[in-house]
Amino acid sequence: MQLVILDTPPTADQTGARAAKASDLVLVPTRPDLIDLDAVSASIETAGTTPAAVVLSAVPSGHPSGDEAAAALTGAGLPLCPVRVFRRQAWPNAFNEAKGVVEWEPRGKAAGEVVELWEWICGRLGMSVKQIEGETV
Fold first, then answer.
1. Model's pTM, two decimal places?
2. Which residue, 85, 81, 27, 29, is CA-closest to 59?
């Protein structure tokens, strides 16, 4: 199995629609802010018949906005990924060193969330967590 990750612009346009059509899974990351949540429906619609899920990201820790956003999304009938990615200092720290949070602080909370998201994605795609280009490592 080969894995290709496409990061398209956050607009519901033809590029996104073509990428979604060629995909096995579409993830729509969004912050739990009203301005961002308003755009989610269009992105999910762009996925068409491709399975899709909204991923809440940059969620403030200890603030009700993550739960409120999750309730609004599920109340609107939108598919929601059960894994949340919180706003943590590890993100800008890793970025400043041109690293991902898993590289920068492998045992940190941010890295744990990314690993949990990866495991969820793999489960949805029916692939091993460590499967890369057809080989299990």
1. 0.87
2. 85
CA distances from 35 to 14, 15, 38, 70, 112 (A): 22, 22, 5, 15, 28
- Residues 103-121 pLDDT 10s: 999 999 999 999 999 999 9
pLDDT digits (tens, 9 = 90+) for 57-104: 999 999 999 999 999 999 999 999 999 999 999 999 999 999 999 999
Return phi, psi of residue 29, to 5°.
-75, 140
> What would the two tokens of residue 61 be?
């820790």
- Residues 2, 135: contact at Cβ < 8 Å? no
